[in-house]
Design brief:
CATH topology of the largest domain: Jelly Rolls
Number of domains: 3
Shape: globular
Length: 397
Amino acid sequence: MYFIRYVINRHTLMLHLTKKKLQELSDKWLSGTITKEEQSVLDEWYNQESHEIINWESDDDDETNLRERLFAGILKETQAGEPPQIKFFKNAQARKVAAMIVVLLSCCLYFLIPHVKPRLVAKNNKPKKVEKATPNKAILTLADGSTVILDNAGNGLVAREGNTRVNKTSDGELIYSASKSAGQVTAVPQFNSISTPAGGQYQVSLADGSKVWLNAMSTLKFPAVFSGTKRVVELTGEAYFEVAKNKNMPFKVSLANSTSIEVLGTHFNIMAYADEKNIDATLLEGSISVKKGDMNKMITPGQQAKITDDIKVSNVDAEESIAWKKGLFSFDRSDTQTIMRQIGRWYGVEVVYQGKIPSNQLTGYISRSAELPEVLKMLQISGLKTTINDKKITVLN
């Protein structure tokens, strides 16, 4: 089931129908009793280029009942075991447009539940289908330079690095198992790397027991076995770390531009793509030290460090940073370029802009299991218009 929290440009989407009429049409749409004439009215509302926001004047109970009716209708349509998991904004602006929820979700039902035929269709040129890569795709590069395509490799032993065994599990995880003496007998560290393609993810369990999840188009370089006074790995792209505790051997993630993250044992996410403006380090558990040149800041759970020429720390919803690990695109007041970079990396497409770059800012979730044309249709609800030609997306002004 596709999952969306809410995708909308709150400054441009408005309504011409009354709140009561929208609720009436939406209930009829969900129950299957809507007439052709009423469907035409709802379609016309949806396809118009501008609308007028209707203020919500009812109390919370009415809003709650409206949501419950909506969920019950969706549940009936899909015959699912549980209602869809929808998360609503908590800020004041979101409550101002609460009356729009039922119609917006009706419009988005096609993306929430792919096997339901959509009754509301966004205006868009029909794009060519773009094949997207499947998760659990990666290439392992061994110390001697040889490579193993992990998605093609069988389960079990895939390589040996000295006294370290490298095994692939049936779940698509790579596990490094080093003998107790491996660190002592290896005079020169044998470095391996795992690289994910567009649309690929991979999980690796390092020799010390630390676990790392790699996002698309990312590379992790690490020793087959850790030795010395520190456990050092190198990252480009994005990864989520669950570091095994070892107070005698700190864990260090080296990044570009003299930046590093150092911990003893903790859970955190690092976003460090070369085409992003900043490096983001978000902490979920424990504590980490964020370093850039001579600067050094400690952050605590629920905080994020944004690293550019300096280090800025702010409180965030840390779970949002690992939405990708759960199979979701996550947008939080994200601009068009940020959104399209995520899409480009996942679907392996080039993104170009025709004219001025749109100023849309979006917040929400979209499932990464959705086909690219469906994702672009969802973004069109917010006013972001695109076309596809082969593996190139053109964003229109």
